[in-house]
Fold:
Amino acid sequence: MDYSIALVVDDHPLVARGIASFLQHHCGFRDAAVVTSGEAAQRYMLAQPPPDLIIADFWLSDGTALSLLREAHHNYAPLHSLVMSGDDNNEIWRQVRDAGADGYIHKNETPEIFAQAVKAVMSGQYWFPQIAGATSSVKGTFADFGLTQRQIDVLQMMMRGYPNKRIAAYLEISETTVKEHVSHILNKLGVKSRVEAITLLHQRRIAS
Structure:
């Protein structure tokens, strides 16, 4: 599958350019921009159309990637994000997940695993240590529910607390269409409300 634009955020320019090149040559991205700080990433997104994917190092020259993740997912959803770190600290990926990222990958992983993680998050799945390796775990869950890609987009925004009006604006569809998607999502999940849907997905370790 081909994608449009990725944004790589890493304060090591050589590493960042290597990742950008990999995304273009092995992950189907038409272009991959490179910035070296969270602040530069935010400036980029103000000046350019938001990217399809953000790849960010957890530790940046101006702090961590957490504020960037929150800002990006709040203002530019739905977009996808994958965070990298060389730390063996479970608390980091939990913070990343809670900030809205779709995945976390250790820098010691192979290029093949990195490509799998990118493919997973771009498909609306999640890639975290408790399910990694294992997109199969998450992929199977979505397959069981039978959600379409558009329904996954709506569901991700529901899980982040967005109202129908805002979902409609971001996805450029009508509120009526959003309501129809929500109704189908609830039916497929076998629940009666958004709260029940979110509870179910968290129980299955699928986080927004």
